[in-house]
Design brief:
Elements (H helix, E strand, L loop, with lengths): L2 H43 L4 H18 L7 H32 L8 H16 L2 H12 L3 H25 L3 H9 L4 H32 L10 H10 L3 H29 L1
Length: 273
Amino acid sequence: MSAATFETAVASALALESERRMRRATRGAIWIAASVAVLGFTAAQIGLNPIALAKGMPYMLDFFSRMFPPDLEHLALLGGATVETLQIAVWGTLIAVVISIPFALLGAKNTTPHPVVFHATRLFLNALRAINELVFALIFVAAVGLGPFAGVLAIALHATGMLAKFCAEEVEGVDRGPIEAMQATGAGRMQVILFGIVPQVIPAFISYSIYRLDVSIRAATILGLVGAGGLGFSLIKTMKLFKYHETATCILVIFVLVFVSDWICSRLRSRIL
């Protein structure tokens, strides 16, 4: 190849690469402009206005000023509500742990008995995760009446959707080595699940369960807003009665409860895993 031909080939390759980069840059600029336009449109649709927030700051500060100092004498009345909140979270999570195990096996591709069962289970789990605990609480308050039992059922259903989904994904990602070794020895389907799959997912399932308990405690603190018991009921009651100093005490108790539960759950996960 002559020098002139080589230089021509190099120049052509450089021009082609430059053209490709220009096209990529143009596409990127178009995508960025379109994204900015969509975000600007949606911001206008939902009334996203920092100026309105700035103007409302004095009213927020006035509301907070009415809450301080907290009425610490109200703490004596919150002991029962705090224990009830913990009971709702613990029982809701415990029920979810038990129920989620079979759903996780039915919702995993390598353990489900049939593709129809797999898709039906995943659809059901998605529905459980899509509905918020407060919505479930409203439904169960109408079904079983006011009180913590409705809160337990609400947390149990929502937590089942989360735990079963995560556990199913862990089941699908297990190491195939032990499973193939058991199948080679003539082990049945149930034996493979019990002794080849379950031991591999137990640590992750325990970790997810502890994390879900932490989330359930946070959720249980507000279920009382719709009459499902716990600290949320005391919170909404004091706000409706304009007893803002007692409201501040409720918020303080909720903060301490969430902080302590987060610390305990973190320590449990670090010890187990």
